[in-house]
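Re: duplicated header lines in exported structure tokens

Our pipeline writes sequence and tokens for each protein into one text file. With two proteins the header for the second block appears twice in some exports. Here is an export where it did not happen, for reference. First protein block:
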Amino acid sequence: MIYHAAATLFRTRGFSASSMRVLAEKMGVEAPSLYNHIGSKSELLRNICFRIANEFLNNMKQVQQLKSDERSKIEAIIRFHIFMMLNHYDEVYVANHEWRQLEDIYRTDFLNLRKQYEQQFIQIISQGIKKGELKKVNPSIAVLVILSAVRGLEFLNLKKKQLDTPNLTTEITDHLIKGLIQ
């Protein structure tokens, strides 16, 4: 609950303009009692960013273990990204935008996790090309396009629109997959 409230605050105000006092007010608790659970605003940001990074890495690990073709693995990755954007929007938004506010040592670790994730995704696309399941594309650009397209969900007003989530997920996934197949 603390992390979700913090993510919502960081998304709406930005990390720099947020304070523990405002977070405590939004949660309906006194600031000192919040400090009994969390040491600092920076600790909250770090936990949000690393939780999200680890969610994506854990999903990638599961996808890599699937006994399926690379196209199906890519589809599973895209579907997970959409799920996270639709169901954990504030946290994903903060991890995508506010990571720059992490303390240097943590920022480096966080960027290394992102790089690791992207490299594993690139590897799946490269395998698909090698197996002839996917057309010859630049795997790095393909990953960039896929991740950027899914992040584009930020531009939908997710809170105000009633979305047909299964249809939205299928439509986005189909468009992105079609760009990779023969």
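Second protein block, exported in the same file:
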Amino acid sequence: MSETLSRHPNSAGGELLVRRLAYSDLPSVISIERRSFPSPWSLAMFVLELSKPSGICLAATDGEELFGYLICSRYDRVWHLMNVAVAPEHRRLGIATRLITQLFETSESELPMTLEVRVSNREAIAMYEGLGFRSAGVRPRYYQDNGEDALIMWLD
């Protein structure tokens, strides 16, 4: 796969570049991660995911600034969308949707896709539903920081 996956105009009038996430992106990824989640992933977790040859790790950028990222792992016969985040100052501009759309194009697979999302994260749930994901159950007390349940979603 080429370095540049897609270019797409963004809501700010610039161009959004979606490309493979690189190790050099990790300082920006960690910054966004810490501002986005109460229990952020560690640097080691991102390094592990980037090192997996079967995974898909994407970055959304304007060529200079990293706006968001996506981590997806393949497990046998299913894709697991592990982590999607957009910098707080760039949210609600369609960046996460663009990352997931690129994931669909990059995975080029008939395999189903799954994810977990906090049951309280109504905006993310609505975005996933808009992309075709459907609720398939709940993982009780999935999130360690507060014991919140996770909604399990699938795209077939």
